[in-house]
Amino acid sequence: VFWTLVGFIHFAGFCLSLRVFWEFWFNKRLHAPYTLMQSFAAILVPDLAYSSVYFFFHLANLLRGEEIADGPCDAIAFITFGIVIATFCGPVIVAAITFFKLMRLSQGDLNWSIPVWKLGLLLALPWLLGLVLAILVQQDGHLGSYRGLYCYATSWNQFVTGGLTMITFLLATALTILFYALAATDVRSTMKAAKQELAARKASRTIALRGVILVAAYFLTWILWTGVGFSSWLGVVPSIPLETVAALITAAQPIVDALILLNTPVIKANMYHRLHKQVSDFDLNPSMVNPSTEKSKPPDASITSIDSITSGESPTPVRISPQETSIIMATRPTTSVEDKVSSYSPSSSSSPAAH
């Protein structure tokens, strides 16, 4: 029953992760120079790996009627250690890039971004750390199947399994909260200095809300799983039903992450624009569409100022809103800002982004 139920959950997560991957391929808001939105690959990659590996793992168990052999399970355990550490570090990477992007924006640097190779290296580091931990666990002889629920460690009562997993989880949670708090505080103080009280409250509230959603999705889906392992390390043996529920909840994280990302306003706006363009291209009555109007409309025209501020995105060329101008003017001389802004037309503000 467990293999069937968790298999369906992982299948849904796998399909939604592929949908998010599709957006990363076709959605311009997830391409350079949108560094902040690109950083969500730190969440997508482990989600896609987790859901795909364990969907086929549980499917194989169902077809065989028993758990797969020790050799393949050990290989999956190696991958799982990388998935776990990368999953823990994903929100930290997103929050850190959010903070640095908004900090540079408040300093007037509209074009700051991270080179693709550096971003790739940043995303690879958690996987390398996870593989190192897997090697340590294997040397202790604890790498393998845990009660037929998943392939990770045969026992949680070792520090490198139950203890270190919980410490890494709590540290990642604390760092994510810290970076989002710093980002919200920095934006609020900069805009207040520019005498933009209302905009400061809206922008800081939006950033804080995004951080709360990201932390809640990550924390609530993993706390029970890591808590079960931590209690085993402390000498309290958890019940099998509790461990089963923990594994089921954790399996749902790729679903939650995908829904959050796909419902981010700046992502949805580009999705709707592409859909509208496709419908217009295949319209049976072309006279209803004005081609010159469609071509002249920028892809992200519906994405407005507060979304730009809270997502930290300032591609070149830039559509600078009054709020964005106030951030820059708080830290740079008025004359240089006016020279920078004069060639752009301001956009109107809209509802804040959610994630």
From TrEMBL:
Region feature Disordered, mapped onto this chain: 286-355
Keyword Membrane attached: yes
Keyword Transmembrane: yes
Transmembrane region(s): 6-22, 34-56, 76-100, 121-139, 159-185, 206-225, 245-267
Coiled-coil residues: none
Polar residues composition bias: residue spans: 322-336
Species this protein is from: Coccolithus braarudii
Sorted UniProt keywords: Membrane, Transmembrane, Transmembrane helix
Name of this protein: G-protein coupled receptors family 2 profile 2 domain-containing protein
Bias-annotated ranges (Low complexity): 302-311, 342-355
